[in-house]
Write a structure and sequence with these properties.
Order of helices and strands: HHHHHHHHHEEEHEHH
Shape: elongated
Strand order of the largest sheet: 3-2-1-4
Strand content: 5-15%
Number of strands: 4
Radius of gyration: 35 Å
Helix content: 40-55%
Distance between the termini: 137 Å
Mean pLDDT: 76
Low-confidence stretches: 156-162, 263-267, 287-295, 301-312
Largest sheet: 4 strands, mixed
Number of helices: 12
Length: 312
Amino acid sequence: MATTRIQRRRQRQRLSLFWTMVMQAIGIFINIRRRNQYLPRAPHRNWDSERNMTLTRMFGESDRVCHELLRMKIAPFQRLCARLRTYGLVDSRSVRVEEQVAICLNTVGHDQRNRAESFTFFRSGQTVSHYFHRVLCACLGLYRNVVINATIHNSPYEKENVQPWYTFFKDAVRAIEGTHIAANVPLEEQARYRNRKQVISQNVLVACTFDMKFTYVLAGWEGSAHDGRLLRSAILRQGDKLTIPFGKYYLADAVFHWFRDFLHLTVRLVIIVETLRVIVLKIVKSCSIFDIHLYAMLLRGQLVCLKNDLHI
């Protein structure tokens, strides 16, 4: 009786040991299978150190690198950051003002996407988007001090720093031109925004003084719109219209030839430039003196007409 009881106990121990080994084998098999399904983790990296090295190389060492990445040199970049601090842009717990401005400038200067910026600055896409809009709102505060309303006295040629061309351009206050800026529009509207180079864009009319200060911007027109149509809208619109001071004129190209105070100077300049180019080509090709003399007479006549147009 006692022997039978001992045998049963040993049998139960053997069965429990067997099933324990089976369960351990199954657990090991499952762990190995799970491990093969996932890629191994990359080694840990100090992202703060990587980010600081990138920012130092971006705007802390070379003017050339800073200009290529942020479209301005180190000194203007530092002045811009200091100026934006006065308009409410402050350091956060983990992002300095310099990094915030660098994110915005690099995005705008190179038309970068949010994912590319998050890779460059080792930040999440949400962080990049947040600080981009934060810097953009701070830049809008510069409007009152940077944008100057157009007046008769805005021409730099009325100052003392104009040397050779003051006689011909003393009444020129600004230059005006249209430019195309890439745009993202819905598919059903892309036909209207496709310009002559088959690029989806908006046509923007810009006027600036000769020291590169913008005085008027008209944005929002389709890329297929003609520059003359933009100018007509800028002159005839009800509010924020383009005004031409009395007795002054704008420099423009031949696109605006049907507008007063635009073409009467432009056509003369175009003819003069083309005549000079032809004279140079004639001299290079060793043409006869008679041909060169004819073109020289044409150039002289155009200069006289230009002088009469400008009432010099």
